[in-house]
User: Fold this.
Amino acid sequence: MGATWKDFFLVLILISPNFSASSSSTEIINSIQSLKDGETIVSSGGMFELGFFSPANSKNRYVGIWYHGIPVQTIVWVANRESPLTNQAGVLKVMQPGLLVVLVNDTGEAVWSSKRSSRSAHTPVTQLLDSGNLVLKDAEADDREENYLWQSFDHPSDTYLPGMKFGWNFVTGVEAYLAAWKTDDDPAPGDFTNHLELEGYPQLVLRRNATKVARYGPWNGIFFSGLPAVRGNPVYSLHFVMDKNIGVYYQENLYDMSVLRRLTLNSSGFGERLTWVNRTQKWEVRISRPSDNCDSYSLCGAYGICYIENIPACDCLDRFVPKDSEGWIKTDWSSGCIRRTNLSCQGDGFIKYSRIKLPDAQNSWFNDTMRLKECAVECLKNCSCMAYTQLNISSGSGCLLWFGELVDIRSLSADGLDIYIRMASSELLDSSVKKRRILISSLASVMGIILLALSLILYIRKTNKDSTKAEEGGKYNENKHKELELPLFKLATILKATNCFSIENKLGEGGFGPVYKGILEGGEEIAVKCLSRTSTQGIDEFKNEVICIAKLQHRNLVRLLGCCIQKDEYMLIYEYMPNKSLDLILFDETTGDLLDWPHRFHIINGIARGLLYLHQDSRLRIIHRDLKASNILLDSDMNPKISDFGTARSFGGNETEAQTHRVVGTYGYMSPEYVVDGIFSVKSDVFSFGVLVLEIVSGKRNRGFSHSDHHLNLLGHAWTLYKEERSHEVAEASLRNPQNLAQVIRSIHVGLLCVQQNPEDRPSMSSVVLMLGNEGMLPEAKQPGFFTERQPIVSQNSTTTNATNSSNQFTITVLDPR
Assistant:
């Protein structure tokens, strides 16, 4: 065979070890016969590199692919992982009619070869794509995947890369799965593998040799049960395909291919999702699975459920009892649980269990068209059917039925799902009685809450009577004291939910005080905002926020769940926002680029609709007075929600404007008439909204903005470019693509209309919503407020520099006696 290797050739771009950016293009060899040890290939976009390598403490040589251009060599694929070369005499070649091989150069022996395709190629070529995929194809064929003779993405080693189809290809019969390295020095397949298994309904299974170690699934239309939900994620999207003619596979696709992201199954059996962070110059672990003991497969046996916060962790599902009581006491849960009342088949029904990881779907059946009620009917037809659930929670359709015992269940406070488990009719009657008791108990609790709320009102009236009179008086004070419908939380409940306000649960801190994440006993996630004793805000702002937002209901306003008052402790309890505040994503160098234009435009529109509700559609006209990026929270679907109503004002009747001696807000967002004269109106919020729009489009803060050509703030910069018909330059470079450009420029124009100097020139929020939602002509914008050039700061050595401002965006209070 050795005599035939001269007939093989490889068409790649070869970068010699000494090649540098200064080399001329004529030095790059475009057509070669082989790739020798010591030579490397770099993908066209410079993302990945192909060549020979040795693991950290090994002298063996392997052909592999790694990230190009980062200081830590990170191997993502290995060709000859089971057949290493013992010296640096290896060579990679292409053989007709389409085979990629690794040879020992001095003997011509092949130690590894790609799978032979059923098709042949007249001119086989291989190419390293910028996705990290090494493909073999006919040079005369186009670049569609179906034309590949072979690709490394079909045969991954221990790493999943975005774009890879993880699972089964029914056309080729190939399964793409992960197999961990034996050790950090030996890339040969180790004990752990991760598969998308098709027995029953597809699910992800981690095995150690033949034994299941952990399991995630089934797919519910959005995510695999037991893994974190991904809704509106700005970094990547998930896809799950089930097609009898194509295959069954899972796929992640990055919105921005410059983000270095991978999922690796390490030699210890942990699947880690890692992201390269330029700031720290290292791989940061974002998710690790299995994450705790409850991820261990079937830890609690059949019908057992694992609560990671409990000691011991295992318990029986409600209405189930341990099968082996003595073993259960000794923490041997392998025998699981059994129903306390046996099924009779006839007359059985179902009880709903919520917030769980769905059981192993190995013995399951599914229908993707049935509705949920039809699922129950179908399950009752078969005495072996033990449970059902909705197949696709995204579309609200389909059903999944389980047959046999239910195993590998755990409690999930977030992203848990519902399942309906078959029960004897007597258990259903007990459930009805229990519901009636709960109803009676709930009514009693409601009465208690009403009495507590009345007590709260009296308390607030008494303790804040003097400060209330010192405020601006009139109808505003009367409105603030209207009856509330707001639950009161006990301090003990909040302490338990936040783990005694542990530092690990701290989300951040603003002008009001620190904010903590908490989880209530029922699993509901909350955010607790505490009034700090050193805060510039106080009881007035606390009371104002309670009164202003308690009865407001809108999808773009944060929802206040209740409050807690005990002695000098004042706390507000909100719904938890997983993506935190807009400023943390927008102004961060590592995450700002991940907000594409559709997400930014969605956020702009959401804020506009929320303000329109406050100004026009709510029970009272509300003026926020402190609208800024840090007061815009983002839920799991990246929906914006306006928060922090501590400094808001409510108007009644035909009131549209007021004046105050106490100016509150944040520099950079406040309107000129408010800062200078203390006059505020709905147009004050419009000004703040305009600043927000320009910040969202540009990714830059208004206050602290700097440019090499001038000393203007962001408003002045945008205005200058608008007059020169260069508005598109305001936007981040990543947003200036032809597909979105018209919408980007229109948003900048609307933002400039909102920040005009004269309040009468600014549009109302109803007009803003219309302007953002259609393509009609917009009026010419006039000069914005605070359009002044900052003076450069001159240091002691007379070097002129741009003015720098603090990025502290806490709410400020300016006392301005008149």
Remarks:
- Residues 123 and 496 are 68 Å apart (CA to CA).
- Confidence is low (pLDDT under 50) at residues 1-32, 466-483, 790-818.
